[in-house]
Structure to design on (115 residues):
């Protein structure tokens, strides 16, 4: 089993910054991709950004230039630095980790951006 613990969400004013963290533990040998998704209220979950074990990233156009993903393989932790936040970034943010082809999801953390 894989456990994911997210932290760092909260309320911030537009233009501000937040940093999310997601720490993986358990049967995590073989982690490949790690990433972040978000789900605005009443909408479908969407990709924010992902990073492979080799460091390649995929990022949604809506957050390019503002959000940065990074990972610390020694700590089995993935981070999301969010800058220049906008009201439309308000959502529940979920961490996703892929281990031997199986996806595991965090519990989600609320990010609210006030305009």
């Amino acid at each position: 089993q894989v456990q994911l613990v997210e932290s760092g969400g909260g309320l911030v004013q537009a233009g501000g910054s937040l940093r999310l963290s997601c720490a993986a533990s358990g049967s995590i040998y073989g982690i490949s991709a790690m990433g972040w998704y978000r789900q605005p209220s009443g909408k479908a979950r969407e990709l924010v950004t992902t990073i492979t074990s080799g460091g390649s990233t995929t990022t949604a156009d809506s957050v390019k230039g503002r959000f940065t993903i990074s990972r610390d393989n020694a700590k089995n932790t993935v981070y999301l630095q969010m800058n220049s936040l906008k009201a439309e970034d308000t959502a529940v943010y979920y961490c996703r980790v892929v281990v031997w082809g199986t996806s595991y999801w965090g519990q989600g953390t609320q990010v609210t951006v006030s305009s």
The radius of gyration is 13 Å.
